[in-house]
């Protein structure tokens, strides 16, 4: 071991594909700098595996800057690892001890099937978003949008929810594999803006129906989602989601053709 570097024993979930059973395999991570990110540590392990002609460990990543939401790992039982408010790619090895044993698993949820090793398919989130997580009406150019007055309080509530990066840690941490923190964030970010009002009812109906169809569970107030969310999305968005659901159901009983409104 070079001076100042760490050595860790990794227990890693290896699974060839979704049809093959997986198992934990032990690896030694050597020459790990405390300044490396967790993914850079896995890169070092993979370089050594490839040099020996072994199959590298498959894991998801893209931006490595905490913004894309793809680095989906459960580290020692916690989605995104032990440090609150950070993604796996922003987690540094100085958060671990030299010689520590670290267990690495994929996000486990029926709606997120394993593709290979630590990679899961989170396409169910895309389907939920496609069912209403957008604004399709013309809102004009940037000056038009900025001409609509929005109170600071409402803008802050919307921006807090818009911080969601769709990583799926909330689902992985929930004993019910509920996606309600994620869906609540998508609904909340539009609910607090004037542009989100036109499709407010159809958005809630569509996204909630698709969330159920994709096999996500319901919230039973464990608050694990809030605890692991790397963007610290508050659980109040689930309360907002529930209110939007009730509102959409009551609107659904109204005479067809009546304006949705705010
Ligand atoms: S709510 Fe948080 S944990 Fe869930 S997908 Fe969004 S950023 Fe990830
Ligand atoms: S790789 Fe993009 S958020 Fe981690």
UniProtKB/TrEMBL annotation:
<dbReference type="InterPro" id="IPR017900">
    <property type="entry name" value="4Fe4S_Fe_S_CS"/>
</dbReference>
<dbReference type="InterPro" id="IPR036010">
    <property type="entry name" value="2Fe-2S_ferredoxin-like_sf"/>
</dbReference>
<dbReference type="Pfam" id="PF13085">
    <property type="entry name" value="Fer2_3"/>
</dbReference>
<keyword id="KW-0411">Iron-sulfur</keyword>
<dbReference type="InterPro" id="IPR025192">
    <property type="entry name" value="Succ_DH/fum_Rdtase_N"/>
</dbReference>
<dbReference type="GO" id="GO:0022904">
    <property type="term" value="P:respiratory electron transport chain"/>
</dbReference>
<dbReference type="InterPro" id="IPR017896">
    <property type="entry name" value="4Fe4S_Fe-S-bd"/>
</dbReference>
<dbReference type="InterPro" id="IPR050573">
    <property type="entry name" value="SDH/FRD_Iron-Sulfur"/>
</dbReference>
<comment type="similarity">
    <text>Belongs to the succinate dehydrogenase/fumarate reductase iron-sulfur protein family.</text>
</comment>
<dbReference type="GO" id="GO:0046872">
    <property type="term" value="F:metal ion binding"/>
</dbReference>
<dbReference type="InterPro" id="IPR006058">
    <property type="entry name" value="2Fe2S_fd_BS"/>
</dbReference>
<dbReference type="GO" id="GO:0009060">
    <property type="term" value="P:aerobic respiration"/>
</dbReference>
<keyword id="KW-0479">Metal-binding</keyword>
<dbReference type="Pfam" id="PF13183">
    <property type="entry name" value="Fer4_8"/>
</dbReference>
<dbReference type="InterPro" id="IPR009051">
    <property type="entry name" value="Helical_ferredxn"/>
</dbReference>
<keyword id="KW-0408">Iron</keyword>
<dbReference type="GO" id="GO:0009055">
    <property type="term" value="F:electron transfer activity"/>
</dbReference>
<dbReference type="GO" id="GO:0051537">
    <property type="term" value="F:2 iron, 2 sulfur cluster binding"/>
</dbReference>
<feature type="domain" description="4Fe-4S ferredoxin-type">
    <location>
        <begin position="155"/>
        <end position="185"/>
    </location>
</feature>
<dbReference type="InterPro" id="IPR012675">
    <property type="entry name" value="Beta-grasp_dom_sf"/>
</dbReference>
<protein>
    <submittedName>
        <fullName>Succinate dehydrogenase iron-sulfur protein</fullName>
    </submittedName>
</protein>
């Amino acid at each position: 071991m070079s001076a100042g570097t760490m050595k860790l024993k990794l227990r890693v979930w290896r699974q060839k594909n979704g049809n093959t059973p997986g198992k934990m395999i032990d690896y030694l991570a050597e020459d790990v700098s405390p300044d490396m990110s967790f993914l850079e540590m896995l890169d070092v392990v993979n370089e050594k595996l490839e040099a020996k002609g072994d199959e590298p460990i498959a894991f998801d990543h893209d931006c490595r800057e905490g913004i894309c939401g793809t680095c989906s790992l459960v580290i020692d039982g916690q989605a995104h690892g032990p440090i609150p408010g950070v993604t796996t790619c922003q987690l540094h090895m100085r958060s671990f001890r030299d010689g520590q044993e670290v267990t690495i698993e994929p996000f486990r949820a029926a709606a997120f099937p394993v593709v290979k090793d630590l990679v899961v398919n989170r396409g169910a989130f895309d389907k939920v978003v496609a069912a209403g997580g957008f604004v399709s009406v013309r809102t004009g150019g940037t000056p038009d949008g900025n001409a609509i007055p929005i109170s600071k309080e409402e803008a802050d509530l919307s921006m807090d929810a818009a911080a969601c990066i769709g990583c799926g840690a909330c689902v992985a941490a929930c004993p019910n594999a509920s996606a309600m923190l994620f869906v609540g964030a998508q609904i909340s970010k539009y609910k607090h803006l004037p542009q989100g009002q036109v499709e407010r009812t159809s958005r809630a109906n569509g996204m909630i129906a698709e969330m159920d169809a994709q096999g996500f569970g319901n919230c039973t107030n464990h608050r694990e989602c809030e605890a692991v969310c790397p963007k610290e999305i508050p659980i109040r968005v689930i309360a907002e989601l529930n209110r939007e659901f009730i509102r959409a159901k009551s609107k659904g009983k109204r005479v067809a053709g009546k304006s949705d409104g705010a």
